[in-house]
Amino acid sequence: MRTFARAGVVVLLGLGLGLASSSSSQAGAKPSISKEAYGSVGGQAVDRYTLSNGKFRVRILTYGGILQTVETPDRHGRLANVTLGFGTLGGYVTSKNPAYFGALIGRYGNRIAKGKFTLGGQTYQLAINNDPNSLHGGNAGFDKRVWTATPVAGKNTVALRLSYVSPNGEEGYPGTLRTTVTYTITKDRGIRIDYHATTDKATVVNLTNHAYWNLGGEGTGTIDDHKLQLRASRYTPVDSTLIPTGKLAAVAGTPMDFRKATAIGARNRSSFQQIVYGRGYDHNWVLDRHGKGLEVAARVSDAASGRTLTISTTEPGIQFYGGNFLDGTLYGTSGRAYRQGDGLALETQHFPDSPNHANFPSTVLRPGQVLRSTTVYQFGTR
Ligand code: GLA
């Protein structure tokens, strides 16, 4: 591959993509990918990649595999960045990104009760970073690692493959876990994420991405008016520490029922016990699946901008988190403070605390097995 530097930006050639000459600054007509140096963390260099395909552009950091920006048109063709994040690497590093904006989450997305699980007769203790539980992989999960990046050419797509090898015992998890996550920007304003992982010792894994969405544009206010539809007739109720009780409860007749598109703000201040525990929505929905392939899990729409987002996945569950813990102390990409409900995360996943619930789909990965999981975020307008 040939590279050349221009105005601090390294443009990658040789992808057979018919690279637009100004690929780094314009969402051109043809798929393109460019790379720029983006600082360093703990002595490790970080790069930022810009992937464009038509009127759609995303930026991805090798730090945390973070989806930093996603620019997509509204019904009048006007671009806005619809994902929450920071405008600098320092934003992510110095704040330790407590909100996990845009980050890849591993080894285990969401909570493990008291950070403890037993596998093969051995009990493992993880860091308690969300008292009294372990959350999102512990103190230094995949969101705080620098990933190795490789651009990948497709016919009408452009992709970035990120790899990370997590050593045996890292954050208390057994086995060397080799993870590859590929972000593909499709020709019709879609982001496809393919997860792939193998281990050399039995372990537990639950990978996801923690992007927050605001279809009006990040920093423009709350998502109370966004309508959400979840293809789920059950959810996993939680205790006061947000650990599942183990039951699969029906959504019917409760504020958890999103089978019909409903405005998020209509019920997120309800006194329903589950909503009180979560300070709003922060739960795992059990998807009504028909098979093992990619199936629609969620649809989000914003009437004001006309933007829509459809999420399809191969996973059995989805965490709908309404940005309840955003408290106005973080200033986002456009410089505005993020307050409660200014974005929603929809994290496709296996269920929280699965290692401690035999009735949940298993998150155990053994040597010789391959974890494969796919989620597609499809943007549109209406
Ligand atoms: C997940 C959790 C939330 C919160 C966010 C990050 O969605 O379920 O409780 O921890 O991550 O702030």
Give a verbal description of the structure:
This protein is mainly beta. The protein has a single domain, classed as Distorted Sandwich (Beta-galactosidase, Chain A, domain 5). Helices cover 3% and strands 40% of the residues. It has two helices and 32 strands. The chain has helices spanning 89-94, 273-278, and strands at 3-6, 9-12, 32-41, 44-52, 57-61, 67-73, 79-81, 104-105, 111-112, 116-119, 122-125, 134-135, 148-153, 158-166, 177-185, 190-199, 203-204, 208-209, 212-213, 227-230, 234-236, 249-250, 262-263, 282-286, 295-301, 307-313, 317-321, 330-331, 337-338, 344-349, 364-365, 371-381. Strands 13-14-15-16-32-26-25-20-23 form a nine-stranded antiparallel beta sheet, with no helix packed on it. A hairpin with a 4-residue loop joins β4 (44-52) and β5 (57-61). The longest helix is centred in the first third of the chain and has 6 residues, at 89-94. The chain is globular, with a radius of gyration of 20 Å. Residues 1-28 have low confidence and may be disordered. Bound molecules: alpha-D-galactopyranose.
Low-confidence runs of at least 5 consecutive residues: 1-28
Strand content: 35-45%
Query: What would the CATH topology be?
Result: Beta-galactosidase, Chain A, domain 5
Strand order of the largest sheet: 13-14-15-16-32-26-25-20-23
Summarize the biggest pleated sheet.
Answer: 9 strands, antiparallel
General shape: globular
User: How large is the radius of gyration?
Assistant: 20 Å
Q: What would you say the CATH architecture is?
A: Distorted Sandwich
| Helix fraction by DSSP (H/I, runs of at least 4) | under 10%
Q: How many domains is the backbone divided into?
A: 1
The average pLDDT is: 93
Structural class by SSE content: mainly beta
Our measurement of the CA-to-CA distance between the termini, rounded to an integer number of angstroms, reads 40 Å
Count of alpha and pi helical runs: 2
Q: What compounds are bound to the protein?
A: alpha-D-galactopyranose
- Please write the CATH class name: Mainly Beta
Number of strands: 32
